[in-house]
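Input for the complex:
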Amino acid sequence: MTARHGPTEPGLLIVSYSYTGHTRRVARALQQLTGGEWREIYPWQPYPMAFPALLRQVKAEIHAGRRPSLLPGAPSPQGYTAVCVGSPNWCGAIAPPMASWLSQHDWAGKKILPFYSHCGGVPCSMRQEVQRLCPGAQVTEALGVLDTAGPDALAAKLAVWLAAAGE
Ligand SMILES: Cc1cc2nc3c(=O)[nH]c(=O)nc-3n(C[C@H](O)[C@H](O)[C@H](O)COP(=O)(O)O)c2cc1C
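Predicted:
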């Protein structure tokens, strides 16, 4: 892992979506480890608070391949060569707001490092999903982090993952 602060080296961009805070915790640890630029994205319409309604909506969106609108101010990957992209695992899939964000940009020639937070339930093929949403990108192995992971285990996992991805 290398913090890239040189005048000619583009920095690392970290972009995350989090509903209950676990993916945010991973993104923050990643930011602390790398010195990268961390930005969050938000759906225009907040998701329901009640779990049954949330689950119903998420399942429907994933099933239909719906891409919810995002709040203005979402970052652009332009100017970065490597982007870490984090989402919760929702029903074995990337969260629709992150699918929206990824599908809005040109990824040719960029490296994407996907990570996701999960509870140990239905597994998620985050790498394949990101590759499908981002043609032309080099997508590295996805890192799955259990939502109960402690800070030390998390930092160790992140360091190994970044090194394997050449960052
Ligand atoms: C609607 C919904 C669906 C979920 N589906 C899965 C799943 O399929 N597999 C899994 O391991 N965890 C699943 N989870 C658990 C979340 O992935 C996990 O708690 C994650 O850490 C949440 O991240 P966040 O706090 O950043 O939103 C689901 C959670 C929600 C709310």
